[in-house]
Amino acid sequence: MEYIMEAANMVKNNNSLLKSNILVKNNKVHYMKEGPFTSSRSMRMDISPYVLTPGHVMIVDNLEQMPFLDFKQYITENYLKKGCTTLLSLITIQREQDLLPALKKARTNLLNSPLDYYFAVRIPLKRLTASFARQCRRQKISAVFLQMEDDSEFPSIPWGWVKDSLYQFPITFLPCWQNLTSSKKAKKKKEWKVMMKKERLSHSIHCPEAGKPLDLDLLMKIGIYPTKGELRVGGELDYNLYLSPEGHIIETIENLDYDSHIPEVTVNKGTIIRVGEDVLFRPGFGNECTVTMPGHFLLNEKV
Hints:
6 helices; 20% helix; globular; Urease, subunit C, domain 1; nine-stranded mixed β-sheet; alpha/beta; 2 domains; TIM Barrel; five-stranded parallel β-sheet
């Protein structure tokens, strides 16, 4: 099928809005331009009343095996209705030996997933070793969430060995702060940032929440972008259409509150999966995805 999305108010990397026209062929973005397609006879859709965003990538945390109807309701309410088109499935383990069995179980739990998915892992900071990092590299896991306790000591980790084990596959480390007061957490975040910059390791100082869109910078760091989280020529057709509450186009994406503002339309790999309150759940349509080169498309050289 071939059609043109006219007057699209596209969200760009700098969170600005760019007016563009998009030619779609075979459920992929075939071409984009600011001016109109004057010579094409394709069917046209005027989407000027909407803001067009890429489909969201969201974390699903410790997804357990559950009956199909419960799984369908959980994914529909917490992800499909929020404009999610890709999952980052986070699994929690306590030691390196648990990684492969946990991955096997997680793959079973996602057999009926209607969305494509990646895997990330969470482990206590004290269990982080060069051997574990190599295991993650072999499994193409590019995001490691580290559980931080009150007595966590960053210098006790062999960061140099960890970094050496990540040759050509720079894993991003994300801290999960637990049981800390606000002042203690602020101090620990500062220490974490200094340590990561000193060791030149890809990192974040925040731990993103499940069910919330991951920001572009993090998607770049962990290597999901530009395969997901971006509308690009040759890429899959994953997008959301938002209508501003006032009924007119918002000026910047900062005015779009993802928590309270849900998309009117969601398209996943060229298929409409949400229109208004109607949601299409396609069991098993999602596939496991892997990262090939984390951080390759970062907008700057900072880690």
